[in-house]
Design brief:
By secondary structure, the chain is mostly beta strands. It contains two helices and ten strands; from the N terminus they run E-E-H-E-E-E-E-E-H-E-E-E. The strands form two sheets. It has an eight-stranded antiparallel β-sheet. Strands 8-9 form a two-stranded antiparallel ribbon. A hairpin with a 3-residue loop joins strand 1 (about 5-10) and strand 2 (about 15-20). The longest helix has 12 residues, at about 25-35.
């Protein structure tokens, strides 16, 4: 099976290349590619960064305005979707969600280090194949609070310039 290839270009950090796995999470990959094609991610930020765990982005602007997107079904085992056996190891891309298993939309996270407690609980859908040094640099930025409700927010915005589909 051909795996779609994407490039996540992050301002002042560099580019991460990832392959996506539609055989593991077909709806998730299709939704992500559609958002890439629409330029949805361009100019958004990685708004939650926890060194040794993950970096999360795809839902907020530099001004911390939330960018809305339709939710999709959560493609992971705990939600009855048995074909997704992707482990949350370093470099894996996965979908963020609320406590509602079918609330994933545009926000995704990239695993900085392995987190087996997320396996079967979140829809992993790809993996970084080049640019782990970019992931490490982003994971090392200084973070703090944003208001009373959001922790682990970078002190300086970490801007996603583009998420480009290189091949399908």
């Amino acid at each position: 099976m051909n795996h779609p290839i994407i490039k996540i270009k992050v301002k002042n950090f560099g580019t991460m290349t990832a392959e996506l796995y539609p055989e593991k999470a077909p709806l998730t990959v299709a939704n992500f590619l559609k958002l890439c094609d629409e330029g949805f991610f361009d100019g958004l930020i990685f708004h939650r960064i926890i060194k040794g765990f993950m970096i999360q982005g795809g839902g907020y602007t530099e001004d911390m305005d939330h960018k809305e997107c339709d939710a999709i079904r959560g493609e992971f085992k705990a939600n009855g979707f048995m074909q997704n056996d992707l482990k949350h190891t370093r470099g894996v891309l996965s979908m963020a969600r609320t406590s509602d298993p079918d609330s994933a939309s545009s926000q995704f996270f990239v695993m900085h280090m392995d987190a087996p407690h997320l396996d079967a609980q979140y829809a992993g859908f790809g993996k970084v194949t080049e640019g782990l040094e970019v992931l490490d640099a982003i994971a090392s930025v200084k973070t703090g609070s944003y208001g009373w409700y959001m922790q682990d927010v970078p002190k300086e915005p970490v801007v996603i310039e583009t998420v480009e589909v290189v091949s399908r």
